[in-house]
Amino acid sequence: MMSITSPDKLHPILIGLSHISERSAAAIETLLRSSTQCQALIVAAHEAEILILDLDAGNPRALWLEFRQRFPTQPVIVLSLAEQHLAEVVWVKKPVKPTLLLEAITLVSKQIQRITPIQPVASTPINQITPVNKAQNKPNKEVSNLAAEPAVIAPITISNPAKTKSKPAPQTRDVTQAMDDEINHNTFGNRPDFDPGSKEIPAHVFYDPHVMLQGLLTDTLKVARADGKSRVIEGVLAVILVIPDPPGWVMTQASTQRIRAISVMHMANMQDTRVRELIEHEHLTLLPKIPLENFLWLISLSAARGRVPLGTDLHAPIKLERWPNFTRLEAIPHAMRISALWLTQAMSLLDTAAHLHIPQRYVFAFYSAANAIGIASIITTSTGSKNLVATHSTSHSGKPVANKQDAPKERSSFLGKLLNRLMRD
Question: What predicted TM-score, i.e. pTM, was given to this entire model?
Answer without folding.
Answer: 0.54
